[in-house]
Amino acid sequence: MALAILGTAVTLIFQLFSANMRNIAISEDYLSATVAAEARMREVLDDDALTENSWSETTGDGYRIDVVVSDALQQRTGELPVKLLEVAMTVSWAKNMKQKSLTLRTMKMVQRKI
Question: Can you give the pLDDT at residue 114?
Answer without folding.
Answer: 65
